[in-house]
Each structure stands twice: as structure tokens, then as C-alpha cells.
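Predict structure. Chain length: 265.
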Amino acid sequence: MSDLLVDLVTLSRTLGDPARDLAMLAEGNTSARIDDATFYVKASGFSMGTINPDGFVAVHFAPILAAMDGPSLSDDAVRACLAESRVTQEGSALPSVETFMHAYLLSLPDVQVIGHTHPTSLIALLSIDESEAIAARRIFPDEVVCCGPASCYVPYTDPGLPLARAIRASVGEYVDRYGSVPKTIWLANHGLIALGRSNREIESATFMSAKAARVWLAAMASGQRVRPLTQEQIERIHTRPDEHHRQRLLWAVGRAESAPPEPAE
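Prediction complete.
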């Protein structure tokens, strides 16, 4: 088993831990780039909290990205595309229907790992009319440090290929505005995507996004006017050298100290 797959299993179990309330049952998915041509992605139907290496599928980028630029596909055609994209045709595991968004996001600069979760607190925030405006705001400094100056926002779209295309459009707009790839993507009425170079980047962005959502909900429930950071304050935090140093320490790339247990026979 490769180090990359060990790390992906470890990340998935961390995000799928029921105590963290980020994903339950078969919710959420993760992925990691193997090389320029292939990547691992969670197979459909597996629970992240208990997943083992056999819960991941190695997939070719090319057919998935080609489908992104092609015509609309029926559900059966999507399933066939996912099945045919597997590096090996052995076994029955089918890549997640969200493989399309994973392929696109992993093709972006400096993105090596993806974590997609459904934090209860964030879904609550994503279910109100003001969620798009809130995605562009920050309420405390560490949210800027871990999640970037704003979150990319994607209106609700049918999961799978339509969602992947909507994400591509919204990320393009974000890059045009901010000059960099987003660290977090908010999917209306759906959940969160964290992008990064390592498990630690994904974990910090995910945990801090869930905390920020809880803070927003508590502040709004107080009945008082919520006072987010100003754009000037956000920009100051985002560009401070000491915060960049703290980011490097927080996101230092390193493998998990121990491998997860092998699947039970």
C-alpha cells in the first residue's frame, strides 16, 4: 500500500469521525493526486469514518475531464464513464459521482488533496438566504489564516457532473477576483470542499470552517447585529508575514506516524 493511500485513509477517517459531526454514514468524499495522469478518489457507498484502502479507486484524469467539456450525460452514461475511468477494471467498486469535481479541482495549481464534507453547522448556514454574502466575509482572524480571504460560493446544483461544471465556473470567477485558488468552497444546501497540498491543510480548513459556521449561527441567534471583519482587516491578516509563517508551521507536510489497520479478513 502506497504512502499516499495511507495518508488518504487517515484523512478520511479523521474527517469521518462521528464526534466531529462533519460527515455521517456514506456522506462526503476525499481524493488525492497520484501523478499527472491519475488520482485516488473514494468509492461510492463507503463511510469515511471506517474506510479502508479498498474503499478508494484509482482513476484516470483524462476521461473525467473530457466529460466535463462534453455534452450532458444521462445517469447511465455517467455511471459508464466513471466505470471506464478506473485504472484497473478489477473489482466492483465504482468511483463517487463527485469524481468529476475532484478531477477538476486536483488539476488546479498546488492542489494535491481534496476533502468534501457536510458539517451540520455549515449546512445550516448554507440553507439561509444570506449564505452567499456570508461566504465572502470573515468573522475572526484564524478563519482568514486557515480558510483564505473568502470562500468560493456555488449555488445549489444537482450532484455529479452538473455540480462539477458549476464549481468550475465559480472557481474561475474566484480566481479572477482574488488572484488565487480558493482554500474552501461552500456548496449551497450541500456542504464544504477544502483544497490543499496536504492532509493538514484540509483538516485546518475544514475544522475552522465548521467553527466559523458555529460562530456565525451563535452571533445571529443573539439577536444583535453581527460585525464581521472589514475587507481592510482581512487583507492585513491575509498578507502579514507572521501569519504566513504560522501557516507554514500549521501546514508542514508530513506523513501520518502510523498506518491505519488493514481491512479485516
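Summary: Confidence is low (pLDDT under 50) at residues 253-265.
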